[in-house]
Amino acid sequence: MSDQPARWSQANVYPDMWADPDDDPRNSDGVSPDGELATLQDFLTNYRMTLRMKCEGLDAEQLARRSVPPSTMSLLGLLRHLAEVERDWRNWISDGEPLPKLYGARDADFNGAVADPAEVDAAYSDLAREQAATDAALAEHPDLSERLGKDGFAVRELLVHRIEEYARHCGQADLLRECIDGRVGQ
Q: Which InterPro entries does this chain map to (predicted)?
């Protein structure tokens, strides 16, 4: 008897995938976006959606479940971490005083990810709010070559870095989800 969940997928047509292509909300009809900015935004949107999909249908205990000791990583921690980094990216492009940390000192985003439904609701709310605020701040700067903030980050660099951050954490979310209930990613 093993305490490891059996591997499974919600897909029927392609059982090795997370979702059948026709049911995957990340798939869109038509051609890909025109232009570099629209392409980068499309990739970011899809990775954000992927992270939410990896957390879908889990309760507070499952979302807060740690990977392997001594790691404090959990799906809830990833949601909180990405809210924190969205806020931090706004600090990179601002000339003003930095916004305060959402969750406190280093690694508090992961360490404070506890199995409480109110914490889960707050994490989703924080993430949505911080994503919208960062998106709004960058929408004022459609020129990908424009340099922002005291360190002169190019808008393009910031968008690519955000995609990289979500992509990396979606890979971790795949493994976390499989450990929780056996559901595998694609």
A: DinB/YfiT-like (IPR034660), MST-like (IPR007061)
Domain locations along the chain? 36-44+58-181
Q: DSSP H helical segments within the chain, as ranges?
A: 36-55, 60-64, 75-93, 108-111, 117-139, 155-181
Residue 81 main-chain phi, psi, to 5 deg? -60, -45
What φ, ψ does residue 27 adopt, rounded to 5°? -80, 135
Q: What is the mean pLDDT of each run of 10 residues along the chain (186 residues)?
A: 62 65 68 88 94 94 90 95 94 88 89 94 98 95 94 94 96 91 76
pTM above 0.90, yes or no: no
Q: Which CATH superfamily is domain 36-44+58-181 in?
A: dinb family like domain (1.20.120.450)
Contacts of 143 (CB under 8 A, 6+ apart): 155
The number of C-alpha atoms within 13 Å of 98 and in the hemisphere containing its C-beta is 12
